[in-house]
Amino acid sequence: MSAFNIVLLPGDGVGPEVTAQARAALEAVGKRFGHTFAFASHHIGGVAIDETGEPLPAETLEACQAADAVFLGAVGGPKWDLAPKRPEQGLLGIRKALGLYANIRPTLMHKPLLDHSPLKREIVEGVDMLVFRELTGGSYFGEKKQSATEASDLCLYTVGEIERIARKAFAAARARRNKVSSVDKANVMATSRLWRETVIRVHKAEFSDVELEHVLIDSMTMHVLRNPRAYDVIVTENMFGDILTDELSALGGSLGLGASASLGDAGPGIFEPVHGSAPDIAGRDLANPIGAVLSAAMLLRHGLKLNAEADALDEAVANALESGARTRDLGGELGCTQMGAAILAHI
């Protein structure tokens, strides 16, 4: 029997609802495989601002630094849109503090949902992509200036930041279909030219056996809809990755299906569904918990190195969908709690 300490950051909106289902799934996996998960909940985002005045309280950060893994629900909402401190500052802050520079987002089509995709079945069937988004650089973290008449966000990347995310993407491709697509805007942006030059150098020096192609971000947003099966591993910078992965999440027919892992070289990772706080349905038990449960599977796999346990949770989601379980965003009638229960029944 193994024991693990997991910090839960339910956050705002539907975050607490989907976090509860992820926790229940982890507890069920622990019972099946003989592991003990000790959970501790802490504030982040808007609820943290309301409670403490800060989007990332020191107590929350300290707890996360001491944990084996961190699960996050969602942050943000219109309540704080014009506030001096924003919930998203807590999310950016914890990523930086924990050194989580690699955001991994899989796009995998579930067979029972092929006809629910907005694209034709023959386009999306067999899609299996893994996006590596650089998470702690670029314009999201660069110096920001704003006056009454102008504003700027500095987009800054160093060679070291590009090298480390490129290495993770190439290493992952070796275990998959051996192809990396590097996405940039090298025809316009200086940071993208450095990005491309660095990726090429890392490829030649360390991963020449892996196929590499370069795609401009504006072209890529079209290609992944016209022929998504052509892509295996995608690596790109922070803002491009944020936009591209939200686009890819729509292939399955719902943002509620997407999972993610944010990792560094040491210490705990953060695992979270890619959907936002969805304040319009918060507190109504309508959220789709699948993205949260699949993020819990990534927590098991990448955070705790429990691969068999992660497989079991992935399979439980697949079997629940195969049995016909659907939330409303997928054309069904189940609520968040009911969908969670349907998944638990297959663990």
The helix/strand series, from N terminus to C terminus, equals EHEHHEHEHEEEHEHEHEHEEHHH
Using only CA atoms, what is the Rg?
Answer: 20 Å
Number of strands: 12
CATH superfamily heading of the largest domain: Isopropylmalate Dehydrogenase
How many helices? 12
Q: Which fold name corresponds to the CATH topology of the largest domain?
A: Isopropylmalate Dehydrogenase
- The N- and C-terminal alpha carbons lie at a distance of 18 Å
Structure description:
There is one protein chain. The model has no long low-confidence stretch (mean pLDDT 96). The radius of gyration is 20 Å and the shape is globular. It is built from 12 helices and 12 strands. It is α/β, with parallel strands linked by helices. 48% of the residues are buried. Helices cover 42% and strands 20% of the residues. The protein folds into 2 domains: 1-101 and 258-347, Isopropylmalate Dehydrogenase; 118-252, Isopropylmalate Dehydrogenase (3-Layer(aba) Sandwich). β6 and β7 form a beta hairpin. The strands form 2 sheets. A 10-stranded mixed sheet has the order 2-1-3-12-11-4-5-10-8-9, sandwiched between helices. A two-stranded antiparallel sheet has the order 6-7.
List keywords for this structure.
about 350 residues; Isopropylmalate Dehydrogenase; ten-stranded mixed beta sheet; two-stranded antiparallel sheet
